[in-house]
Every structure is written in structure tokens, then in C-alpha cells.
Amino acid sequence: MSFVPPPYPYERLDGLRARASQHEGGAIDCSIGTPVDAPPPAVVEELARAIGDRGYPASAGSPDYRAACAAWMQRRFDVALSHDSVAACVGTKEFVGTLAGYLHLRSPERDTVLYPQISYPTYAMGATLSRLRAVPVTMVNGRLDLDSINPTDVARALVLWSNSPSNPTGALDDLETVAHWGRRHGVLVASDECYAEFTWNGRPRTILEHGSEGVIAVHSISKRSNLAGLRAGFYAGDSDTVEFLRSVRQHAGFMVPGPVQAAVAVAYGDDDHVEVQRSIYRERLELIGSALNEFGVDAPFPDGSFYLWCSKEGMDGWALATLLAEVSGLIVSPGDLYGPAGAAYARVAVVQPTERLSLAASRLRSH
Q: End-to-end distance of the chain based on CA atoms, in angstroms?
């Protein structure tokens, strides 16, 4: 039987959109984590100049691009990386979706992707697209329960994905423990850290603080600098793995356009705009979280990310999403989009302009 792709998760929300759109002033779409705020002007100016390499760019990224990524890692995490241990990717989603297939070429005796049971759907879909096994790992208090993994699955594992801060829960994992577990079992750990700049409980963390052997960190410019449309990020860490992936990916033609690389290098060189964005997201999380709590929805402030992971007693995620659409015009994501274990929750992405979120809050408070 031929492969039939499942419905794309966010295409399942059309009914919610219809309900939310009935409000005067329209719907307020908080279902997808797409930043809407302006990127740094200097980045836009650099992109408009389009002076980056107009020929075929190197798949690994230009020296300037990799240097900018490495310099940011040094400033933000106090982690020193050689440029050879950093490489570009065309947005991190494509990297997440293709990593397992490439690793399988190197280790054909292994066929399993381990990933958080409540998580971004592409970890599991990347395994499916590569005809590999996707095995969810139980979460306890927002952290991977590594002891729960079946030894047979450990022996077959190509990679263990971690995601901290988590999409959708906002939880922080123990990256040191995750890194040590991977090394002990000979399993590569891929740490998706694209929300690291929006860590609220303490400082931002990376798995590379605990050494690079057997681990890679994956970062994106999309959330950090409101540049999702540029499709640019990087992966860094274990030098043998980075070199293998660089070599394979160049055969597939994965290349970040030269002008985009030049603009992203500017973005990674500036931290001031991120501090401004942090303040904006914190204000929005507090605004909507307070209104939801007053409405009887449990919406705790996250440890990281710009998501509220919400629940209401007696309702599953779809019922809660329907209620919020009808009452406030908010379109949110039911939790089962992130795995069956998330079925009792809904995710609110506070990415709409503050005035639109204020409108949603006022609608909630009027009930």
C-alpha cells in the first residue's frame, strides 16, 4: 500500500477558525508559533543589499555565517566552537525532518528515532518519512524519562531528540543528564534549542555546555529575530557528525541563499533586539495567562518559550479550543496535535500583536 500523508496538523483547525471569525473584530490566531513583530532594521537593510554570494553558496554556510553563529554561542552560552563544528541548515524544520534518514545511511543497523511524547510533530514525521520507527519517550514533569526507554529501543536508536524549552509545554529539560545518557548508550542526542532566547526560569542553556561529543545543538533565527520567512538556522556540536551531515546534505542541494546568510549573520551579531523581544513576549504571556486564569483555565507561566500550555477541568484540548474560539475569538492548538499524551491540553502561541491579544483578554474577562 502506498504512503498516504496524514493531514497537516494545523489544517485540522478550520472549524475553530469559523467559530472564532464570528466575533466583531475577527479571529485572533494563536495556533501557530509564527512571529509577527518586525525584525531588526539592520537585518532588513542587509537583505535588501543582497550582496551575499550570488553563486551557489556552500552547503555548510559561508565562513562569515558560521563565525557569526559561533560568536553568538560564545556570548550567549559561553561555549567555544570551532567553525568546522558549525554548519547551516535551511531553517531547522527541514533539518529535523531529514536528520534520521541521513543518520540511517551511516548506521543502517539502527532504525529508531526517540522523541518526547509531547512535542513538535516533525520529530516523529522525520522518522516516518525515512521509513524508520518513531518511539515516543515518556515525559515526567516536562522532562524526558530516560529510564522508561525499553532497552531494545535504546539498542536500535539512531538519535534521541530533546527540546528545551519545549514546544508546546514550555518546560526545561535536564540537558546534562540527557547528554550523559546519550554518551553512555552510544546514541546521538539532537537538542532542539530554538526557544533558548526565551528562557524565563534562569539563564538560557545549551546541551553543548556539557561537551560536544555525541551531541548536536540545533538553533534557528526564526524565533530569536522574527525571521521565520528567511528559513535559516544552524547545527553544531560533535565534529564527526557535523562533518558527515555537511557532506551528505551538500549532495541533496541544501543551501541557505547567500544574501540570506549575510542578513542572518547581522542578526546573530546583535543581542539588543532580542532583549526587546523578550520583554514583549513576557508582557503577552502575562496578559493572556492572567485573562485565561480569571476565566477558569489553568494557564501557568512557562519556564521557557512563548507558549501557554493550558487546561480546563472536564475538557479535552479540542473542547477547550472550541470554547476559547467561541468566547474570545482565539484560535489555539488542541494538545493532541503534539501527541496523544497532550490530549487534555491546548497551546496558545502569544505571537499576535499586543493590541489583538488585549482584545482577546477583554473578551475573556467579559464572560
A: 51
Query: HSE (CB half, 13 Å, CA atoms) of 173?
Result: 31
**Length of the chain counted residue by residue:** 367
Cell of 299: 494557564
User: Which domains does the chain possess?
Assistant: 9-30+273-365 (3.90.1150.10), 41-268 (3.40.640.10)
Q: Which residues make beta-bridge pairs with 330?
A: 28
Write the single-letter amino acid at 132: L
What element of type H or E holds 233? strand 233-237
Of 17, 6, 24, 116, the C-alpha closest to 332 is: 17
Strands 215-220 and 330-331, sheet pairing:
unpaired
Over its length of 367 residues, how does the chain's per-residue pLDDT go in tens digits?
577 877 777 777 888 888 888 988 999 999 999 999 999 999 999 998 877 666 788 889 999 999 999 999 999 999 999 988 999 999 899 999 999 999 999 999 999 999 999 999 999 999 999 999 999 999 999 999 999 999 999 999 999 999 999 999 999 999 999 999 999 999 999 999 999 999 999 999 999 999 999 999 999 999 999 999 999 999 999 999 999 999 999 998 899 999 999 999 999 999 999 999 999 999 999 999 999 999 999 999 999 999 999 999 999 999 999 999 999 999 999 999 999 999 999 999 999 999 999 999 999 999 8
